[in-house]
Design goal:
Elements: H1 7-16, H2 40-43, H3 58-64, H4 84-95, H5 98-103, H6 118-126, H7 146-156, H8 167-173, H9 179-187, H10 192-203, H11 214-220, H12 226-231, E1 260-266, E2 272-274, E3 284-286, E4 296-300, E5 306-310, E6 313-319, E7 329-332, E8 341-347, E9 350-355, E10 358-366, E11 369-374, E12 382-386, H13 392-405, E13 417-418, E14 421-422, H14 423-436, H15 451-454, E15 457-463, H16 468-475, E16 483-486, E17 492-499, E18 503-509, E19 517-523, E20 535-540
Antiparallel strand pairs: 1-4, 1-12, 2-3, 4-5, 5-6, 6-7, 8-9, 9-10, 9-12, 10-11, 13-14, 15-20, 16-17, 16-20, 17-18, 18-19
Helix pairs in contact: 3-10, 4-7, 4-10, 7-8, 7-10
Length: 546
């Protein structure tokens, strides 16, 4: 069975279609053609849906209907294999939803889609039309199979009760095509030509549970006209009515979620939400290291819902498509319901965070990820907010307690060491351990000894000058329990205690005499001639918080 144009037909068609151009770089099916002539070429299409012997010009019918375009000279490249992204774009054309897809940049997790296809990919996931081949892989450039494309077409007709691998059989069952056509698409080379044949036949197929055809739906949507449908031999004429809304699952009652900057701690895992300031970055669960990437900003909406923004970049919002199992990622603010949440306070300060548009799903800690999962109310879906405001009073009280164990004037002994260091460095490391429960090691320049040590503290400030102004600026950033580390050639380690307008107090060892503890008052200009290359201020990542 042949479905190819005769050479003389191709020449006639080329003349008729010479004005058709692509209007979106790289996109194969976006332009609208207003040429509605009923030339000899169009007349061939009368009742073509019922004539399986001549589907060879299906693509040109779709082109005249404005559902697809081609190259600048109107070439549809029918001999080429179609890709999955081309097939999905054609599917959206059959739905008449290209404009909707381009109206909002819905989020997606795929990493293999072209820029022009991004809006379609995000819209497809949002509408539950596709989930790709995997979470990260749409298979955009992969050749599309007859079964894959027919699965899209059946969804356009309202069918969901089938396995995509059986989609061709389902198409025969509902009368979209004959068994002979199905065998051709399945067994012969599947090209863009065959994509067009399936699409053309689908226009005359009835919507599930309705006498209206897909063409009637497009007419009702204003995507094609009755005159066009008649000229191209489509089955139409029954007014299309959209299915009734089965009921909203939107959350209608909200508990107040306080606005501000917070860490979001999960009640089950004792870990917190973390991400990076990159569009499409995953939102994951990790240990609390007081990183800025673990702080989110709650932004309230007028209706009581809220958005969750990156505290590092307010233009990035926590975003997840409204379906069970969807991965939470960071995405540019787009005003969609994928970024609006509602809170349920299950106990004081403990919240379940539901998608505002779908009360059936909630943010859930799942195997190191944050996902939307079916609402259960379990601890994996319960979150506490921590403002992460550091409690300097608590730190001061803890440091004062340590100073009763090692009071000023106490001798540590000539063999004293801690965490691989002696004298002042060893004492500083021991105070750090007693303050924060972690053994951190650093060098004289303040740099960590290992990546594990680096996770235990941050370098807040560093100065190469010991002038009064430089020291005042450095000490203004210090908090009780912080480490002040001097570098070579005169090295020294101190623990910051407090400060005022004229100077500051430190807690150290080995300054007054070998291995002797001291509490000393230092004026800002006291070290102006200090022979040390730099001084670094170190701050624990698990500093006490309120």
């Amino acid at each position: 069975m042949q479905f190819h144009l005769q050479n003389h037909k191709k020449k006639i068609l080329s003349a008729v279609l010479s004005g058709v151009v692509l209007t979106s770089a790289g996109a194969p099916v976006l332009a609208y053609n207003t040429d509605n002539s009923t030339s000899i070429i169009s007349s061939i299409f009368q009742n073509a849906a019922k004539n399986e012997t001549d589907l060879s010009m299906s693509g040109y019918a779709l082109q005249r209907l404005g559902l697809i375009s081609g190259s600048e000279d109107g070439d549809l490249m029918l001999e080429k294999a179609g890709t999955r992204q081309e097939g999905f774009t054609l599917f959206l054309a059959l739905l008449g939803e290209q404009d909707k897809a381009n109206a909002t940049q819905y989020s997606y997790t795929f990493t293999d889609v072209a820029d022009w296809f991004g809006n379609y990919a995000g819209y497809g996931v949002y509408q539950h039309y596709t989930s790709g081949l995997s979470e990260k892989h749409f298979g955009a450039q992969d050749a599309i199979t007859a079964q894959q494309y027919m699965a899209f077409v059946l969804r356009a007709l309202g069918y969901t009760d089938f396995n995509w691998t059986e989609s061709i059989n389902k198409a025969v069952e509902i009368g979209l095509c004959t068994q002979q056509q199905a065998d051709h698409w399945t067994n012969d080379t599947f090209r863009r030509q065959e994509l067009m044949e399936i699409s053309y036949l689908a226009l005359s197929a009835r919507m599930r549970g309705s006498e209206s055809t897909l063409a009637d739906k497009l007419i009702a949507a204003g995507r094609i006209t009755e005159q066009q449908a008649e000229a191209e031999g489509l089955t139409y004429g029954t007014a299309y009515t959209a299915p009734a809304d089965t009921g909203s699952t939107k959350v209608t009652a909200y508990d107040a979620m306080p606005e501000g900057n917070y860490e979001l701690h999960n009640l089950s895992t004792n870990k917190i939400m973390s991400t990076t300031t990159t569009k499409q970055a995953d939102v994951v669960m990790s240990d609390d290291i007081n990183s800025s990437n673990q702080t989110f900003t709650i932004l309230g909406n007028a209706d009581g819902t809220f958005r969750i923004a990156s505290s590092n970049d307010y233009s990035l919002m926590l975003d997840t498509n409204p379906t069970d199992g969807a991965d939470a990622i960071m995405w540019a603010e787009n005003g969609s319901d994928c970024q609006n949440f509602a809170a349920e306070e299950v106990s004081e300060g403990v919240y379940i965070i539901r998608l505002a548009s779908n009360a059936n799903v909630a943010l859930t800690a799942v195997n190191g990820d944050v996902r939307l999962s079916t609402y259960t109310g379990t601890a994996e879906q319960q979150w506490t907010l921590n403002s992460n405001q550091e409690d300097m009073q608590m730190a001061s009280e803890k440091l004062a307690s340590i100073m009763t164990v090692y009071p000023s004037g106490k001798k540590l002994g000539s063999s004293y060491s801690f965490a691989g260091a002696r004298q002042c460095m060893g004492f500083g490391r021991e105070v750090f351990y007693r303050m924060y429960g972690e053994t951190a090691r650093w060098s004289y320049d303040g740099s960590p000894k290992s990546s594990a040590d680096a996770a235990l503290y941050t370098i807040v400030a560093k100065s190469n000058s010991y002038s009064a102004d430089s020291m005042r600026a450095l000490i203004s950033k210090a908090k009780p329990g912080d480490i002040l580390q001097m570098n070579t050639p005169k090295m020294h380690t101190m623990v910051f205690v407090s400060s005022d307008d004229t100077g500051f107090t430190v807690y150290d060892a080995n300054w007054v005499s070998s291995n002797q503890v001291s509490v000393r008052r230092v004026s800002y200009g006291a070290w102006s001639g200090r022979n040390s290359s730099s001084i670094t201020l170190l701050h624990a990542t698990n500093y006490p918080t309120k």
